[in-house]
Design goal:
The chain is built from 19 helices and twelve strands. The protein has 480 residues and is of the alpha+beta class. It has a single domain, classed as Cytochrome P450 (Cytochrome p450, Orthogonal Bundle), CATH 1.10.630. It is globular and about 65 Å long. It binds protoporphyrin IX containing FE. The site of protoporphyrin IX containing FE has 24 residues, from helix 14 and helix 19. Protoporphyrin IX containing FE (HEM) binds next to helix 14 and helix 19.
Length: 480
């Protein structure tokens, strides 16, 4: 009896708190509300895939292009209307990103990521982007390929037995990111239990934990202290990498990674543009933005190839035709892999790894249809909803790479937004596309890929938020 009393009191207090704070202003009553309990129930019943969120509220997304929820003491509007989406992406002064240091003050999230290119706005963002941009223009292909070949060596030792692809892709993409972004080998493919991987995974767990975000558990000092210790450990590693990189550059040694290119861009300016602390926060945000996204994209991609054998066969035919005897595509060959690109785009439509964008904070009232969303509200572009809207896509639930036959087919009407859009478009889109194409070229040449029998995903992928919820076991059968 006593055992249940405490949780019951907490739940009652939460209900009272929610009821008092989430009173709907008159002007917003006709926008459908997703309640705190819809979200909470979703988390405890593990029904929190963005596919479920979309299907449960599809009626409202399709009719109004917006639904609302009350969270963090404010109203948040999830947008699927493509006209508003376009405005959000193009008018960055009216829709700046929310300031993380104000939104999650004193959190591990704010401590780890500080001020960086992805979460800043206005002049600060311009300064960061000016240093980051040139680094992403000349990506070191050799650093991608050496890790991809290492992964192939690991696969070589396994034949016909199922391989869990989510964790393999996590390990592969972390190693690629470490090497390409700042010349550091996490060595996750060879030794996933090493201290660097652990330090990174510990911080990921903290900053992505939905319960901690929902209930702001870091307001409890002991939790905050424990988390900050873990953040410090990883930040110290990044500090060390920057220090070593300065030394290497002074000694004339070069590997061509992004940090090196950013340090060069920094020195080319009249005044130093980014401090070492700001560079460190950008390293942290590249990890946040570039790791799980690409690893999820590759996992869902391999899954769709395993379940769409015709697509797999067409893609393989193209890879063998374009690459000939080359294992790794050259820069020119990357451009010729037209069908493979269509498959990659369609996968990013079906399963967008960034299925909601960073909150934007309205600086003026937003009037559309018969709604007036007041200044100060938070807007969240719901990419999954836009990508699955039957108003914007023919047969949205079917995997049809051919819909991308015409280049930029759907970017003009803002219905394909896997990498965002406008001036805040993803900095790492080419980085990720190169990585995905390279892996596919190597795997398709060598293996036939099928879904393991009795897979939990045999009737469709199970999602948790934007990622796949359960392991995906695939069989890689060597081709003759
Ligand atoms: C499949 C892989 C990826 C997807 C789906 C993806 C998606 C996105 C999206 C949707 C945005 C816009 C966010 C917004 O406007 O709120 C974005 C921004 C960004 N992405 Fe990516 N991303 C991917 C890979 C990467 C990689 C590999 C890196 C870096 C190594 C990266 C770095 C960034 C950065 C720095 C920004 C912020 C740009 C700015 O605000 O100026 N992303 N990404």
């Amino acid at each position: 009896m006593i055992f249940w009393a405490f949780p019951a009191i907490v739940i009652i207090l939460l209900i009272v708190h929610y009821k008092i704070n989430s009173k709907v202003p008159d002007g917003l009553k006709n926008i459908h509300t997703i309640t705190f309990f819809d979200i909470f129930l979703g988390i405890i019943t593990k029904q929190v895939g963005h596919d479920k969120l979309y299907t449960n509220f599809k009626k409202y997304f399709e009719k109004d292009g917006v639904v609302k929820r009350h969270q963090f003491g404010r109203w948040i509007f999830m947008i699927t209307d493509p006209v508003i989406a376009k405005n959000i992406l193009l008018q960055t002064d009216v829709y700046p990103k929310v300031k993380m240091e104000e939104f999650l003050p004193n959190s591990s999230f704010a401590e780890y990521l500080g001020t960086n290119v992805a979460f800043s706005s206005g002049d600060v963002w311009k300064r960061h982007r000016r240093v980051c941009n040139p680094a992403f223009k000349t990506l070191p292909l050799h650093l991608f390929s050496e890790t991809a070949l290492k992964m192939m060596d690991i696969l070589e030792t396994i034949d016909k037995t199922p391989i869990e692809i989510k964790s393999l892709m996590q390990r592969f993409t972390l190693d690629v990111l470490g090497k390409v972004a700042f010349g550091f080998d996490f060595n996750n493919l060879d030794n996933p239990d090493n201290v660097y991987v652990k330090a990174y995974n510990d911080v990921q767990k903290i900053i992505m934990d939905p319960i901690s975000i929902l209930f702001r558990t870091e307001r409890i000092p002991v939790i905050r202290q424990q988390n900050l210790k873990k953040v410090d450990k990883l930040s110290n590693l990044f500090k060390e990498i920057i220090k070593e990189k300065h030394k290497a550059l002074a000694a004339g040694k070069s590997r061509g990674d992004l940090l090196e290119l950013m340090l060069n861009a920094n020195e080319n300016q009249d005044n130093q543009m980014l401090s070492d602390t700001e560079l460190r926060h950008n390293m942290a945000v590249f990890m946040l933005a570039g790791h799980d996204t690409t690893s999820n994209a590759l996992s869902t991609l391999l899954y769709v190839l395993s379940t769409h054998k015709d697509v797999q066969e067409n893609a393989r035919e193209e890879v063998l035709r374009v690459l000939g005897d080359n294992l790794i595509p050259s820069t020119e060959q990357h451009k010729s892999l037209k069908y493979l690109n269509m498959v990659i785009y369609e996968n990013l439509r079906m399963y967008p790894p960034a299925s909601t964008l960073i909150f934007r904070e309205l600086t003026e009232d937003l009037k559309f249809k018969d709604f007036v969303i007041p200044a100060g509200s938070l807007l969240e572009l719901f990419i999954y909803g836009i990508h699955h809207s039957s108003k914007l896509w023919d047969k949205p639930e079917e995997f049809l790479p051919e819909r991308f036959e015409k280049e930029n087919a759907n970017s003009e009407n803002y219905s394909w937004l896997a990498f965002g859009g406008g001036s805040r478009m993803c900095l790492g889109n080419n980085f990720s596309l190169i990585e995905q194409r390279m892996v596919l070229c190597l795997l398709l040449r060598k293996y036939e890929i099928s879904l393991a029998p009795n897979s939990i995903h045999k009737d469709g992928l199970k999602l948790k938020f934007q990622a796949v919820s359960h392991p995906i076991e695939l069989i890689f059968k060597r081709r003759d």
